[in-house]
Structures are given as structure tokens and as C-alpha cells.
Amino acid sequence: MSYALSAALQAAVHARLSGDPALGALTGGHVHDAPPAGKLPPLYVLIGPERVRDRSDASGPGAEHDLTVTVAGEDGSFRAAKEAAAAVSAALLDPPLALDAGRLLHLSFRRARADRGPKGRGRRIDLTFRARVAPE
């Protein structure tokens, strides 16, 4: 397998998160696939880096994507970021994502890391999800 379905997976993740009403209420609809330009919103979601491995087997070609979704904000507490992170998980894990190309075989939550920004300012939560995809 190749990196061929990466764009379709990212588009599906972005569409799901951008269209989720609960996440939109928490972030003001700030869901990005590149860091926002200018002044940062108080709380936003960034679809970030991914690592992809070939997972082809006897049943056919496939790839495994470890995709990071970041919730970041300038708020002094983690509460708002954690609520938004929970909304990200809920939005991505149910119902299954539909891809424009290929098919999603499995999507699961792998891990999260919550951290403070530089000099203790701001908050950041990196959520990692594992997606397994295959061509149609």
C-alpha cells in the first residue's frame, strides 16, 4: 500500500470535526488543517502530523495511519481544552468516517498528551488516533 489514501482520510477527519455541533460550540468552529494565521483563537483544533505504515496482508493492500489532532488554547486551565478533546474523540469515533476514496477499516483512540505551552502559558492536548485504510 502507499500514502494514496492520506488526503481522503484527512478530508474526512476535517469534515467530521468542522461539522460537529458540540465541538463547534466549544471552539467557535475553529478547526484547521494548518496553523491559523494571525492572532490565535482562544481555543482551536489542528489536524496535525501523521505516521503511516504499510499494513498489506494476504487479504489485500492496506495502510495504518497514526493521526494527531491537537486541541490548543490560551486559557489558563485545562478544562476547556479537555472538554474540546473529549468532543474530538466523540466526533471521530462514532459513527464511522466515510472516505471519498478507499474505505476506513478501523479507527481507534491510541493516546493523549496534555501539556502547558511555553513559559506555562496556554494549553495543548495532542490526541493520537489510529486508522486502518484500504482501497475500494
TrEMBL record:
It holds the Pfam family Tail_completion_gp17. It comes from the Bacteria. InterPro entries: Gp17-like, Viral_Tail_Comp_sf. This is DUF3168 domain-containing protein.
